[in-house]
Design brief:
The chain is of the alpha+beta class and 226 residues long. Helices cover 38% and strands 16% of the residues. The protein is built from eight helices and nine strands. The longest helix is centred in the middle third of the chain and has 23 residues. The two termini are 29 Å apart.
Length: 226
Amino acid sequence: MSLRDATIDRERRDLVTHQAMDESRLIRFVAGPDGTVAPDLGRKLPGRGMWVEASRASVDAAVKKNLFSRSAKTALKPPADLADRVETQLVRRCLDQLGLARREGVLISGFEKSAAAIRSGKAAWLIEATDGASDGRSKLLSLARHQTTRICGVFSVDDLSLALGLENAIHTVLLHGGRADRWTFEVERLAGFRSLRPGAWDLDHPGSAHRNGSDEDPRDEPERAD
């Protein structure tokens, strides 16, 4: 059973708002023996869990208002940059999921293959490098808007290339299925700490990408063979 499946319909109370929320919307924290507070994103660490909504504002509020100490009924020392640490770990978990997806054959890369997957309706997510050229990206974003494909623009070319074991990974598509569900669970938590799509992308004119008549992103290069 995946972590996502295990959290469906289970609720916990958010330390900040005191509202009951589904676990999928929360980050679990645990207290260490030295009084520190650490995120437990895999929800496997021992100890009583303290739950905070998966957002930067909520984690910062829990630190500033000393809510972890109140919950644990003992003095705790959460680091001031706790939200940054959560974000860093979530980024790593998302990239790890993409690496697993590629090894399982449910993640494809390259402009043409990504476009074909979107047109076929098989694409759950279009994952575009933040620093890729706008021409190819605009074309794929336009295609995705006409399908149910969700869009993520969180990671750089270097991030994606390293996670996937490819050179110059810019355009990737995650196909519908169990791995996409697990990725969605992780990336939706990340969305509370980092916007999933740069605001500048919405300013790109979808039609402008077709003016040069090319279907290839100028930065695309042949990928390594598996």
